[in-house]
Design a protein that fits this description.
6-stranded parallel beta sheet; SIR2/SIRT2 'Small Domain'; Rossmann fold
């Protein structure tokens, strides 16, 4: 590993990164908001614009906020879901899927902090959602998964002028259906977190793509990988966010396709 890496600001892929990918038998990839930014998916705070700019983020992303005004919160998350449904996977999403398929890496695992479904739509199969998914709503009261029929498309039901939209009711207990994301003050889903730790600690290489490394506990996964002996590489346009680790300054949609092409050669 490189103790004091020199960030690359061009499409030139660091040879040490290429060699790490080619040596690895198991690869884990930790992705954050930067992974989907080039698909037009805003971060949580970026999405607080226009109609929603007058609301406190904590009012839209806490259990207490949902209980206080379920129509407001559900309407805001429906707007986010519709935006994701209209977006398309970018070249970075597709490159990760290609890396797994062409190199036969059955153990290439994507651990994502994103609540979109772009990894899956790009063809990746082993995806762990640490912060839940906009496409996995559940009952607030009993936790029963709600139907996702029709959730791949924008809803046809109208919203009020303030964006509010009453949530559906649970088919089991009649309680309000909540967005399937992890809100402030909530723990990560234990099954997903345990699996992420297990896959990360077994990996030979961890790629950290498009995340600031500030949100815990996910931000602790690179340290877990390094303690287990894995090489860790950050692919991020902001080198200051990943000081002290191997870093290649590139965006996901630019860097990942270049990396895969360098490692595997052109597709047949």
């Amino acid at each position: 590993m490189i103790d004091n890496p020199t960030p690359c600001t061009s499409l030139e892929v660091p040879i040490a990164l290429v060699e790490a990918v080619q040596r690895a038998r198991r690869i884990a990839v930790l992705t954050g908001a930067g992974m989907s930014a080039e698909s037009g998916i805003p971060t949580f705070r970026d999405a607080l614009s226009g109609l929603w700019s007058t609301f406190n983020p904590h009012d839209l992303a806490t259990r207490e906020g949902f209980v206080r005004d379920p129509a407001l919160v559900w309407g805001w998350y429906e707007a986010r879901r519709e935006g994701v449904a209209r977006a398309q996977p970018n070249a970075g999403h597709c490159a990760l899927s290609e890396l797994a398929a062409r190199q036969g890496l059955e153990n290439l695992t994507i651990v994502t902090q994103n609540v979109d479904d772009l990894h899956e739509r790009a063809g990746s199969r082993d995806v762990i959602h640490l912060h839940g998914s906009l496409f996995a709503p559940r009952c607030l009261d009993c936790g029963h998964p709600a139907s996702t029929q029709g959730m791949g498309l924008p809803t046809a039901s109208p919203r009020a002028e303030d964006g509010a939209q009453p949530p559906p009711r649970c088919s089991v207990c009649g309680g309000p259906v909540r967005p399937g994301v992890v809100w402030f003050g909530e723990e990560l889903p234990q099954t997903e977190w345990n699996l992420a730790c297990e896959r990360t600690s077994r990996a030979d290489l961890l790629l950290v793509v498009g995340t600031s490394g500030l949100v815990y506990p996910a931000a602790g996964l690179p340290d877990l990988a390094m303690r287990a002996g894995a090489a860790v590489w950050d692919i991020n346009p902001d080198a200051s966010a990943t000081t002290g680790r191997n870093t290649w300054c590139s965006t996901a949609a630019t860097g990942l396709p270049a990396l895969v092409a360098r490692c595997l050669g052109p597709a047949a």
